[in-house]
Each structure stands twice: as C-alpha cells, then as structure tokens.
Amino acid sequence: MPEDLSAIAPSVTLPCGTRFGVTDHGGGRLGLTAPEAPMPPHALIAKALSACERLTAEGPEVALRLEGPQWAPVLPQLRAQGIALACASGDFVLPEMLWQRPDLWLCHNAPAYPQIWRQGPHGRHPLRPPAPEGMLYRRHIPWLGQTFGLRALTMEDLPLFHRWQNDPRVAAFFEEAGSLEAHQAYLERLLADPHMTGVIGMLDDMPFAYFELYWCRENRIGAHYEAGPFDRGWHVLVGEESVRGADYITAWLPSLMHYMFLSEPRCARIMGEPKASHAQQLRNLARAGFAHLRDFDFPHKRASLVALDRQHFFETRAWARPAPTDGQPLRLSAARLLDKGDW
Q1: What is the rounded distance in angstroms from the CA atom of residue 71 to the CA atom of residue 32?
Q2: Cα(312)–Cα(314) distance, rounded to whole angstroms?
Q3: Known catalytic membership, residue 212
Q4: Among candidates 193, 176, 190, 214, which has minimal Cα distance to 300?
Q5: Could you tell me which of 25, 199, 284, 321 has the fewest CB atoms within 10 Å of its CB?
Q6: What global pTM score does this model have?
Q7: What is the distance between the alpha carbons of residues 217 and 107, in angstroms, rounded to a whole number?
Q8: Choosing from 175, 241, 273, 315, which is the catalytic residue?
Q9: What would the pLDDT profile of 128-143 be if each residue is shown by its tens digit?
Q10: Looking at the DSSP assignment, which residues form a beta bridge with residue 292?
Q11: Is the pLDDT of residue 341 over 90?
C-alpha cells in the first residue's frame, strides 16, 4: 500500500480477476464496493477478506467502509465473525479486527484447546495441544514481493539445522555449535517436549530461519516473572546471510508474532529474554512493539525481559511497518469509531 494515501487506485483486483471498487475519502478513509456480479455469500466473504488484506498490509493508518447494496446479504455474517464493525455511519473493516481473524494466514485449524490444568515446574499450567504439523502460516510481504511462510520442523531439517548452528555468526549468540549427533539429540528432545515447537521460516518456500516457540509457564523464563497461562516466548536463528537487514526483519518478526497470536487466541503477551548486552536486537524489538520490563540473570547470561502486548500489536498494525508514533491518538481505531459513530 503506498505511503501517500491519495495515490490509491480506484480498485483492487485479486489474482482471480475479481475487482473491488475503492473510493478514497482522504486521511486513510477508504470506501470498498463489492463486485456487481452476484456470487455465493461464502465466495464474496472470502474474496472481500483478500481485498481487505491487500489494502491493510502496509503503510499508514487506514479504515475501510463497506459501501453499496452488494454487501447486504453478507453483512450479518461479517458482523458476527468480527470482520465488520457496525457503527452509526456504516459498517467498517478495521485492521486491528481483521488481522485477528485466522482465515487468510493460518494453514491449520486453531480452535481454543480445552482448558485442563496440570502441574509444571513453576506451578500449574494448561495442558497444551499437540504440536501442529506441516505448513503453519503464509503471508505476502508487499515490500519484498515475496511470501513469508512458517512450517513445522521435522527431523528432515537436521542437515539444515546443523549447518546453521555451525555458522560462526550464529554460534556466537545461539551457542549450540556441535556435531551432527549432538544436533540430532537436540532436535529429538525439542520434538518430544510438549511446551516447545520448532518452526522453519521461509521466503518463497526457501528456508532461511529457525524459530523455537515455547509456553512461558513451563519454560525457564517462568521462574523470573508472573507468566500468564497462555504467554508465549520465542528464540530465533537467521541462518542465511542474504536474508538480513531492516526490510527482512520488518517482514519476519511481526509475521512470526502474528502467527503466535493467531494460533492461540487466548495469548495476551509474547515474551522475550535476549541478552541484555545485545543492543541491536533490543532496538529491533522496541521498533516491533516490545516493551522492556527489566533485566534479570539466568545462570548463563544477563537477560532483558521484554513483552509484546496483544492489544498493542493489533492496534498499532505492527505487521504494516507503520511510521513511528507521533504521540497523537489513533484516528481510525475501533474505540474511536464506536465512541464517535463515524470516522
């Protein structure tokens, strides 16, 4: 999406050829008109979601108002699913609500797993669902012109994991350089651990990174703060030198956070514990919306406790590379629209 909202095209056309009309009302206020040709309600909703994703994936604050009679048959369903927000002046699709819907990005079902409690190393915690398999998440990154994807780690990734871990640049901070046998044992332990999930990050299906996702209550970090039952944490290893720099970090970092929030809708915070001395990583995390809470000590390192709040992530549209805040209230937030009844 262009930085200059006045340059928005009068329509958005999907790869299938379906065209939605776009009216620019100024200041990030866009009217979205459905195609005139009739189509089944489920098809209209699916295509409307794709059009809305394209209009909200990058750039400054934006809100979409559904305009025209073609929306009438699907408005009740759009409202019920939290896609459209009914206000006095119409029905609006807002990024902070749309991007909490899993439909466009998750590649597996993620209903709320039944909440059953069991004892763990830092008190009780919910029973965790089985680790997902296969493709987990896909998202087109407009400023790269590539698709970011996540898939579940398998033992077939051992040679890749072994090569990455023995890269001197990676070994300097991940500290897991070693033999193929040692890395095989590492992955076997991880795949058998219900509180951990190994994930491979890809661009256009080419692997470039390894992520470890974990539940904080069962993790070592759970001994250092009051972890919520669905708090999640993560570690990262970017293995390919070519996938480095701001354009890539602003693609994979918020997309990974997006996946972690979508795959467990009860997750209210994503935590991190980078080295307190890693100034560049802390700057990257701050730009991505993480708040620095305090520093603390693990046996092996001085760490910074950082947290990304779910509400903050979605309200600020962290996935869209928004400009730094100017300290002014959001103009097109759900709270503001509900209070004013208009945009």
Answers
A1: 10
A2: 6
A3: no
A4: 176
A5: 25
A6: 0.94
A7: 26
A8: 273
A9: 999 999 999 999 999 9
A10: 306
A11: no
Q: What percent of the chain has a predicted confidence (pLDDT) above 70?
A: 97
> CB under 8 Å, gap of 24 or more: what pairs does 289-296 form?
289/313, 289/316, 289/318, 293/225, 296/224
CA distance 212 to 227: 18
Nearest in space to 301 (alpha carbons), one of 280, 270, 261, 272: 272
In DSSP notation, 155-177 reads: GGGHHHHHHHHTSHHHHHHH---
pLDDT attached to residue 328: 84
Supply the pLDDT for residue 11: 87
Q: Is the pLDDT of residue 126 over 90?
A: yes
Q: What letter would DSSP give residue 115?
A: -
Among residues 244, 228, 227, the alpha carbon closest in space to that of 236 is found at: 244
| Average pLDDT rounded to a whole number, residues 237-251 | 95
Per-residue confidence band for 1, with pLDDT thresholds at 50, 70 and 90: very low
Locate 29 and state its tokens: 């206020």
124's enclosing H/E stretch is strand 123-126
* CA atoms of 307 and 309, how far apart (whole Å): 6
| CA-to-CA dists, residue 184 to 30, 132, 201, angstroms | 52, 20, 19
187 shares its domain with 281: yes
Q: To which residue do tokens 């944490």 refer?
A: 233
Residue for token pair 């994991």: 161
Say which amino acid occupies 68.
G
* Domain residue limits at 56: 5-99+327-340
Find the CATH number of the domain harbouring 182: 3.40.630.30
pLDDT tens track for 13-22: 999 999 999 9
Which ranges of 196-323 does DSSP label H, i.e. alpha helix?
246-263, 279-287, 310-315
Using alpha carbons, select from 288, 277, 303, 300 the residue that is nearest to residue 225.
Answer: 303
* 86 & 170 share domain: no
Whether 81 and 121 map to the same domain: the answer is no
